[in-house]
From TrEMBL:
A Pfam family that the UniProt record links to this protein: Esterase
PANTHER family cross-referenced by the UniProt entry: DIACYLGLYCEROL ACYLTRANSFERASE_MYCOLYLTRANSFERASE AG85A, ENTEROCHELIN ESTERASE-RELATED
InterPro entries: AB_hydrolase_fold, Esterase-like, Mycobacterial_A85_antigen, TAT_signal
GO MF: diacylglycerol O-acyltransferase activity; trehalose O-mycolyltransferase activity
Enzyme class, broadest EC rank: transferase
UniProt keyword list: Acyltransferase, Signal, Transferase
Protein name: Acyl-CoA:diacylglycerol acyltransferase
Record field: catalytic activity: 2 alpha,alpha'-trehalose 6-mycolate = alpha,alpha'-trehalose 6,6'-bismycolate + alpha,alpha-trehalose; an acyl-CoA + a 1,2-diacyl-sn-glycerol = a triacyl-sn-glycerol + CoA
Amino acid sequence: MTTRRAFLAGAVGLSVAGFGGTARAAVGGPVRADDGAYVLSETTIDARTVDLTIASPALGGPASARLLLPRDWASAPAATWPTLWLLHGAGEPQDYRSWTHFTDVQSFLADQNVLVVLPSDGLAGFYTDWLFAKNKRWATFHMVELFQLLERGYRAGPNRAIAGLSLGGYGALTYAFQYPGRFRSAASYSGLVDTLFPGAPVLVDSMVLRAGENPLLMWGSPVLNVLGWTARNPTSNFSKLRGTQLFLSCGNGRSTTGDAPLDASVLESVAAPANQVLASKLRAAGIPVTTDLGNAGVHAWPYWEQKFHQSWPVLAAGLGV
């Protein structure tokens, strides 16, 4: 069992080529976000992979993100680029590096002129601004600070798509409905799409607890602050996804190879009913959604890589590529 799967299973139980020396496009100093966030350092991983360390007022310290550069980054220094955000899940030891560690995203997109953004969400930041914790404003870090730095210093263009797995699927749909028009397409793979589904609040609180945090500091009690939970729940706000090209996938907990760990099967079967309900609500409201639900699949990276490939036409349409 990987560290990440153990984390989630427990919750259920309870200078770069083309940079010219720098990736920044600003002249006369590093760019800054409106609140003063700025890039502390850039670490070159390879010719098209750069890790950023960002001074984040929203998080009260340094935060990380990985960028995968477009194919023609070096040869088109004045161009802006379609931007794809890929979000990781909870308890992920590889954090913002997980997509490049566990999938073929780099080779799959090698021929694409797309800027790929892989931001950190910590162990269980939940892609949200915590209501009762000063330095856990993850949504502000992602959607304000990092977003502005990318547009001002890394040539991020106006065509955007977002996708995520597990907790990252929650993040992708949440950012899509909270920032209408920002993302032209969104995809969720085995996502936590309804935080108020029967049993889901216990799962949410358990995930936060296993990250060593007090879940009441995030959104408070799901009973006493049900309005706060509802405001941050994709299924409760599904109508706000109208106009966004959507893809939902979730397996039925059965492995195609027959050798999936038990926790990967259980987690997927837990996520499946809520995904079915969300898809039904979207269709009943006349909101188009592409789905792959109820087929064999488990809560694991090989399945998510397949679904990322399958969702690419939806994401590419939003990116305009």
